[in-house]
Amino acid sequence: MLRNKFWQAFFAIGPIAMLVLGLIGYFVFLFMLISRINHLEHGPGNFPENWILGNLGIIVFFVLIAVLISFGSLIYYIVHAAYNPNLKQNNLLLVWILLFIFANGLGQLIYWIIEVVGKRDQQES
């Protein structure tokens, strides 16, 4: 599983993609809420009461999925870095793991581009 190109790309791009999708969903929710503010002012009979809670439930679901993908990405790339023979020679393993922890999402994407895709192209040549 560590050498599977699909999972490497998924766990590298997934957290950032979920962040972007989450922000888009949040702004769509705010836009829909603001566009229906007139219905809120004229009483509860004109506005379905569970609309807000239903859409907040969807946002919470996406946040939960994003957290799970981000945590899975963190674990996947720490294990991947630990098994990477190119990082055993110097202190790069510690640097990458600290980057994964403190720059979660972005650190995995950078590692994927530099260490996985970059080294794959060098090995194929």
From TrEMBL:
Alphabetic keyword roster: Membrane, Transmembrane, Transmembrane helix
Residue stretches spanning the membrane: 12-34, 54-79, 91-114
Transmembrane keyword on record: yes
Name of the protein in its database record: Cardiolipin synthase N-terminal domain-containing protein
Organism: Muriicola jejuensis
